[in-house]
Every structure is written in C-alpha cells, then in structure tokens.
Amino acid sequence: MTTSPSLFGITNSNRDFSLRAAWGKNQFNNAFPVALACYMDHLDLKPVFLKVDGDLHLIHDAIAVTELLNIDPKSPDAFFSFEVDYQPFQKMVKGTLPRIDLVVQSTATDQLLCRLEVKLTALPDNGTADLPDDQFGCEIVVRPDTIVYQALSIAQSFQGREIDLLKILQPVCKGIKNWGSEEYMAKKKKELVDAVWNVVASGVHQQKPLVLQPVWKTVGKSATLADNCLDMFVWSDVALLRLYADESIKDVESKRIHRPMRSVIWLLKMLYDFAQAGRFSPKSITNQLSYSARTDKAFAIGGASTHKYMKCVELTEPRVLKREIKNIILGGGQDYLSPERRFDAIIVNSLLKYSSKDYDS
Questions:
Q1: What angle do CA 257, 261, 265 make, to 5 degrees?
Q2: How far apart are CA 131 and CA 153, in angstroms?
Q3: What does the pLDDT read at residue 353?
Q4: Residue 1 lies in a domain
Q5: Cβ contact 287:277 at 8 Å
Q6: Other beta carbons within 10 Å of 294
Q7: CA 20 to 30 Å from 267, out of 25, 323, 338, 348?
Q8: Full-prediction pTM beyond 0.85?
Q9: Which pLDDT value is given to residue 195?
Q10: Is residue 79 within 8 Å of residue 142, measured between CB atoms?
C-alpha cells in the first residue's frame, strides 16, 4: 500500500508527487491523464487513436500505451518529464523552443522517446449537456504552443526532403504579399485550406501521436461523475489539423480571420519557413500574425463540433469506472487537490465514498 501521495505508474519523474506543490491545477491537469494512461495499460485497455486515412477522412483506431509512449510504462527506465522542451526539435526553431506537456525518456539510454500535449476535457461541455448521452461532446481548447509542436511534428516527417514540402506549399504561399494583413489573408482562405488538405494528404503515412485527450464524464450538468467516467483519446498531428481546418472553412466568406483560420495560417507559415530554410521562428509568427485577436489560445472548438470526430462507444460509455479513481490517485493525494476547482472537487467527493479497504490489489 502506497503511504505517501502519488499517481499510478509515475514512479520516475521531474515532479515529486509526495509534495503538495505537485498537485496544483496546471500540474494535476497534465499529470493525472498520464497516470490514467498507465492505469489503462495495466488493464490492457488501448486509447482511441484519431487519425486520417488515405481518403482524408478522420478514422478511429486503437493504440497501445506502450506504442504511444515508445516504452512500457511499467519499465523502471521510463522517466516522465512534465512541461519541458523537446530538445530534438530545437534545431528546427529560431529562438526559444516552447515547452510541451509531457516528454518521456529512457533512463537506460537517455533517449527521448515521445512528446505529447495533454488536454483534459469534461464530458459533456455546456453546449451538449442538455442533449442525449450519445450526443455529448467535449470542448477542446488548444494553445499556440500546440500548433508549434504540431508544425514541428509534421516538419520532422519532411526532414531530408524539404523540397517536397516546398512543392506542396509554394503554389499558395509564394504569392502571399502580406501575411500580416487580415483583409488580404481573408481573401485567400480557400487557397490556404486547400494547401492544408495537401499537407494532410502528404502526411497520412507518417502521422504521429500529438495530443493526449482524456475525458471525464459527469451525469449531465451535475457535479456527479458517471459510473463509467474516464477514457482516453489520442489525436495524431494531421488529425488535429483536420479538426480545426474543417472548422476554419465555416467562415470562409467572412472578411475576418477567426481563430481556427488563424491557426491554419500559423501552421502554413511555420511549415513554409521550414521548407525554405530548415527552421522557423514560432514566437515571431504567432505574435505578428495575430489579426487583432489575443494570442493566449490558438482556438477553442465546442463539443457540438468535436462530437462528430470523437463519436464512438468509448465516448458514450467510458471504460474506466468511477470506483477505480482510487487506484489512480494513491496515498491520499486527493487531500492535496483544490476543492474550488470543478474536477478536483468531483474527484474528492467521489473518493470519499470509498474506504482504503476497497483498494484493488
């Protein structure tokens, strides 16, 4: 029995979960999903892998956690680093490389094995809470650094053949006279989205996991977890592009550049600069191409829109049960959570229903 606070499967880490400081909002929101992934591996449950097929349709597959992390999470060599930069990408970046939510490393070889963004999402969101269970959806909020790592992930697939990427992008990007002009770029929306589809098509056979998206399900709008409450989705780099590029064409006739379209432009500019020079400047691109909107987030897409991509049995009836949370949060770690935060309060209230004698072996 674990006596100090900890999270299932995260034995070696740059965070010490026996300390209260490791259980703050930002820390818990990216660490708990990793513990959930480790627990699902323990149960031999595979996350749902969202990826793009050869016809550019978003499809569902399954991915083992070992394949996702590129190491058996039970291995004593698995080291979980949270909110660090992924150094192999530095050579493709001018300036500072932003941090990513999770980097997994082998302590035996010092090799960096994977890098993932983490999006912990509530099911349902406000926009779908009044709908039937099988129409519940999650809002996905994506930060600019996610677009940077998406661009780097796709660019990595073109290392050594940058000319191929340049051939895809140059017909559209070479003629752009003023990337920073909202009026000018708004007239090119259709061309920009067409260029995105060409990038998606070129990356189908090399797509890689990018976003770890756990869902936690409540009973409608209530503060009560559903009995079947936790599951895991994984977006590939090009699948995420499919999501917000589809959203961007909803306003294709508008003279404004809204956030999904802005994210399309950011990605294309990053990839175009990489194709020409082998690297790009993330901060300059996101700051200079703001189109009068704040850059604290790239975009947010509500559950009514994400549902059509994520719809499956696992979304309607998540596979990890409420009573199993006590097997993921260990050693009284819930006492370090902040009850004013919705997810924290719901977890604490759920765990109060189970005594220590109920812990699974």
A1: 100
A2: 36
A3: 64
A4: no
A5: no
A6: 7
A7: 25
A8: yes
A9: 94
A10: no
